[in-house]
Amino acid sequence: MRDLSQLELWFVPGSQDLYGEKALLMVREHAEEIAHALSQPPEIPVKIVPKPVMTSADAITNLCAEATRDGRCIGMIAWMHTFSPARMWIAGLNTLRKPLAHLHTQYNRNLPWASIDMNFMNLNQSAHGDREFGFVGARMGLNRKVIAGFWRDDHVLKQLAAWVRAAAAWHDAQSLKIARFGDNMRSVAVTEGDKVEAQVRLGYSVASYGVGDLADRVGQIAEQEIDELVAEYDEGYEVAAPLRRNGASRPALREAAKIELGLTAFLKEGGFEAFTDTFEDLHGLAQLPGVAVQRLMAKGYGFGAEGDWKTAGLVRAMKVMSVGLQGGTSFMEDYTYDFGQPSKVLGAHMLEVCPSIAESRPSLEIHPLSIGGKADPVRLVFNARSGPAVNACLVDLGNRFRMVVNEVDVVPPDEPLPTLPVARAVWLPKPDLQTAATAWIYAGGSHHTSFCQALTVDHLADFAEMAGIEFLRIDDRTRLEDFRNKLRWNDVYYFLSAR
Ligand code: MN
């Protein structure tokens, strides 16, 4: 998985040269203190690097160009401690190709009521300095995040942390390569999409391979490598009897290990961090990759089944966003319902659910796959941990990408599921299944999602803002009438704003 600690956010205080050296020195000291303080909490996985106080258009233009070029810089946080006439920011902001957050804060929490004078007023004037900067952001139509409040307060840190993590995922997406083995599952609509537009809009590139290319690489795996990986399986999971040493299905376990080794090698050699496959196209592979896909996801790879490269990219983005946080991320599918009170979703897939969401040690099992006509695949089986989660999807509406995110609460299954041979999560969607499913369907949300127990809707909203794509949330406050109106208004907005 990516090491986010090497990445940087540039903390840029703005001012002008009217204030004199002493005031600018104070601005610099304060900015350094704030940048340092914001770097410390574990929620912020990157370095926040203070930059010199900006007092001229040339300096700003140079800094923005440098930020755009710098491979470690994932974004810029701007703060106008004093007034900084914003026309001098236009040239720089025009060239900035990194995410921008505008932190609207103030060095002091409270006013020194008894001693406040005009010197204090002139130094601590972000209340209007940041409004000037905000105007230019609005006038230029910049995608950006505005965070207002005292910099030591939790709500500021929480918003900044969400944005920082979205910026890290955005940075990753700009060089992400997704490998597709085979095409989409035949005739499926929602997993289709414009890969060129995705590259323009989201950064990642999608490359297609015949599954035979993968089968060739699997064929080159040595017996000794298989021995070692099978030993790792034996150690790591509750291995079902037929898969154990001398069990009747031990050869199938070795085959699964061989597929994992070949797939891993193929992805590493090609520099891929996400991939798709499809059960309809497995020529040369003995079984649908199950445990292989599950374990690769657990290592940080994005995945989408049935050729779903959009979900593969989204799973990868959410894996990067949640580095170091509690809770896993998985490819997921709304599979079947319990229409009791309250109504629940049982989420799963044919095999490919990531063990990062497991509540306990998974069991390694082999069962028939009722479709596809291949040998029985080996898979990890488990229940997901209970607690809050989000389900996110990305669809292509033809003139834009739309992200839909639903807040859910994962709950234990009502009863044990002794005959269900796949990993699963049971959840209560917010505000309730009926409303959430109705809204999701009106929005054209896909059956495939990226499911995550580490992130909130805010992380994804920030990511969508960076990409300039449509964002819809379904949560406790969702009312269908409002939601449907939003869909109509958004159609008009995206029609008018099309480039
Ligand atoms: Mn599916």
Written description of the protein model:
The chain is α/β, with parallel strands linked by helices. Helix content is 39%, strand content 21%. The chain has helices at residues 21-39, 57-69, 87-95, 118-123, 126-140, 154-173, 195-202, 211-219, 223-236, 250-270, 291-298, 309-321, 433-442, 457-467, 480-496, and strands spanning 8-13, 47-50, 73-79, 100-104, 145-148, 177-181, 205-209, 238-239, 274-276, 302-304, 329-338, 344-348, 363-366, 378-381, 387-396, 401-411, 424-429, 448-452, 470-474. The strands form 4 sheets. It has a 6-stranded antiparallel β-barrel. A 5-stranded parallel beta sheet has the order 2-1-3-4-5, with helices on both faces. The protein has a 4-stranded parallel beta sheet with strand order 7-6-9-10, sandwiched between helices. Helix 3 links the parallel strand 3 (73-79) and strand 4 (100-104). The radius of gyration is 25 Å and the shape is elongated. The model has no long low-confidence stretch (mean pLDDT 96). The structure holds manganese (II) ion. Manganese (II) ion (MN) is lined by residues 305-306, 333, 349, 448.
Descriptors for this entry?
alpha/beta, six-stranded antiparallel barrel, five-stranded parallel beta sheet, 15 helices, elongated
Secondary structure layout plus pairing:
Elements lengths: L7 E6 L7 H19 L7 E4 L6 H13 L3 E7 L7 H9 L4 E5 L13 H6 L2 H15 L4 E4 L5 H20 L3 E5 L13 H8 L2 E5 L1 H9 L3 H14 L1 E2 L10 H21 L3 E3 L14 H8 L3 E3 L4 H13 L7 E10 L5 E5 L14 E4 L11 E4 L5 E10 L4 E11 L12 E6 L3 H10 L5 E5 L4 H11 L2 E5 L5 H17 L3
Parallel strand pairs: 1-2, 1-3, 3-4, 4-5, 6-7, 6-9, 8-13, 9-10, 16-19
Antiparallel strand pairs: 11-12, 11-18, 12-17, 13-14, 15-16, 15-18, 16-17
Helix pairs in contact: 2-3, 6-12, 6-14, 8-10, 9-10, 10-11, 13-15
The structure holds manganese (II) ion (MN).
